[in-house]
Design goal:
The protein is mainly alpha-helical. The protein is built from 5 helices and 2 strands.
């Protein structure tokens, strides 16, 4: 099974209130559809950095983000993880 790294913006789109901005609303809808229909076809993983970011901001929204992340396996840290984080940033 192919692995997919779930990053914080995906979780944010998943739980956010519907946006009035058409592009953002479209991204939210695509994310919700993927999560409902495609997620089971992949081994979804997260990192400690995603958890830290998901816990920031409004407490109510942070709780919703954390509920989505619950149960997803953490990838281990190390040089490969640090390189991926640097490349993404």
């Amino acid at each position: 099974m192919e692995s997919v790294y779930i990053e914080t913006s995906m979780v944010s789109y998943l739980v956010a209130r519907s946006s009035r901005n058409p592009v953002t609303a479209w991204r939210q809808q695509l994310t919700k559809e993927w999560w409902a229909e495609q997620r089971g076809q992949f081994a979804c993983v997260i990192s400690q950095e995603v958890i830290a970011e998901a816990m920031e901001g409004d407490a109510g929204m942070a709780a919703k983000r954390m509920a989505v992340l619950q149960g997803l396996p953490l990838i281990s840290g190390g040089a490969e993880s640090a390189k991926l984080a640097a490349d993404l940033l």
